[in-house]
Write a structure and sequence with these properties.
six-stranded parallel beta sheet; Rossmann fold; eight-stranded parallel beta sheet; alpha/beta; 19 strands; 2 domains
Length: 461
């Protein structure tokens, strides 16, 4: 094993994956096995391993994901390890096409649901598999694997539930949960028919006696610095980085400029892996120009210092391209303002998107706009622990969090009141409150006042 890796952590994770797969394939009759993974644990690797092991045992397997993008990503993982004699059958909706590199891959074939009845390994979205099975076009398989099961809602899960007797549900509890824009969306809370239950909640709530849970004790994306903060989102789930503490480094080719107030902060962050910049006072709006100016200045100065990374993948310093720097926000208006401002200073390659869109993706460096910045009081949307978790777990080397001093006051004192429902113990706002508290505490050593900057002229999105 490479000296960059912690052998004990990797070995423990491999044992857990083997035990999880054996449990799923040893199920007698109806039953489910749940694999809980922290951010960057290697869920796709575990899913692919389970699929290939099931195929070795002569089973027919269907793998389902919530979105087409996730299905394509999983097919990519399967292709990387696919035996020469195996075909991966992608079952797609009529208007959906695979990326070119997958559609041309010799192991991948596109099949209709009816054609897929003769195939051994199927990959599709939950919606597609559920629709095909409900219409009678797709018969049962021996094992159903659901990737991103904590992001799959009950409606989708009920559609595929009858596809197999044995289910393996893999997911990350810390990510954004399913949501609805329907009015009175909470009217089913506490009922077994609640459409906002996740696939995992459906089986644990209704079939606890037929469910086993395994927790992967590893994160491969985050190094030891990143894992220390990420643990705040996974209470009761012990995990460590797969990497030794010195496995990754980010350095600057251009020296610090004593006249540039951001340089000393960036030098600190390059070593610590974290920086929490606080602007004074509250913002008057969620999309305030002061935060836009600071985020753009951070991105511009970071790239102007010509950063390079070394890691377990490459020992020689590799220059950081704009495309490996992402800015993550909560709202589309924040995204639009930042996109225009970054483009105006020649940073068109820097990725800008909401946490919902960046969920599941990885970048070398991430700059995050704190979801509480600009609020006068907290609400369930901005307290959502999944949103903050996505923001702070996309990076491999460095995460810069930008907010306001007022953010901390919003999660001090008494937590907010939250609605309660008979037979339902969930409280997203309270979970988010405590997650924000824990994260602010973990980031306390890395908190610094933001230097004063002159706001740029208004940018038109």
């Amino acid at each position: 094993m490479s000296p960059h890796f912690n052998g004990e952590v990797v070995a423990a994770a491999e044992r857990t994956i083997r035990d999880l797969i054996d449990a799923a394939l040893s199920l007698k009759g109806n039953g489910a096995v749940i694999g809980e993974a922290p951010a960057g644990a290697g869920k796709s690797y575990a899913v692919a391993s389970a699929a290939f092991e099931a195929l070795k045992r002569g089973l027919r397997v269907a793998v389902a994901t919530p979105t087409n993008e996730q299905a394509a990503s999983l097919i990519d993982e399967l292709c990387a390890r696919c035996p020469d004699d195996l075909k991966i059958s992608a079952v797609l909706a009529g208007a959906v096409a695979l990326p070119d590199h997958l559609s041309r891959h010799p192991a991948v074939q596109t099949k209709s649901a009816k054609e897929a009845n003769a195939e051994r390994l199927l990959v599709a979205t939950l919606s597609k598999l559920g629709d095909a099975h409900g219409r009678g076009d797709l018969g049962r398989v021996d094992l159903l694997i659901i990737d991103e099961a904590f992001q799959a809602n009950a409606v989708h899960y009920y559609g595929v539930g009858g596809l197999a007797a044995r289910h393996l549900l893999m997911g990350d509890r810390g990510q954004l949960a399913p949501f609805t824009t329907a009015p009175n969306g909470d009217r089913w809370r506490g009922l077994n028919e609640d459409p906002l239950l996740t696939a995992v909640e459906v089986v644990t709530r209704n079939h606890a006696d037929k469910t086993q849970t395994f927790k992967l004790p590893i994160t491969r994306r985050l190094d030891t610095r990143g894992a220390a903060v990420a643990r705040a989102f996974y209470p009761g789930h012990a995990f460590s980085s797969a990497l030794n503490p010195d496995a990754r480094a980010l350095t600057f080719s251009a020296p610090a400029d004593p006249a540039e107030p951001l340089d000393a902060l960036l030098d600190y962050a390059a070593v610590s892996g974290w920086l929490h910049l606080e602007q004074p006072g509250p913002a008057l709006t969620l999309a305030d120009r002061g935060t836009v100016a600071l985020l753009v200045a951070l991105a511009a100065r970071l790239l102007a210092r010509r950063p390079a990374t070394t890691c377990e993948r490459h020992a020689a310093p590799k220059p950081l391209p704009q495309e490996e720097l992402a800015v993550v926000v909560s709202h589309n208006d924040q995204k639009a303002l930042l996109r225009a401002a970054l483009d105006a200073v020649g940073l068109g390659g820097v990725v800008v998107n909401t946490a919902n869109k960046l969920q599941g993706l990885t970048y070398e460096v991430v700059i995050a706009w704190h979801p509480l910045a600009g609020l006068t009081e907290v609400d369930e949307f901005h307290l959502d622990p999944g949103r903050l978790c996505v923001m702070l777990t996309r990076h491999r080397h460095l995460c810069l969090l930008v907010g306001r001093a007022e953010d901390r006051r919003l999660v001090e004192g008494l937590p907010p009141s939250a609605p309660t429902y008979a037979t339902w113990s969930g409280a997203p706002a309270l979970d988010g409150w405590y997650a924000h508290e824990a994260v602010l505490s973990a980031l306390a050593p890395h908190r610094r006042p933001a230097p004063a900057l002159t706001p740029p002229p208004p940018a038109t999105p």
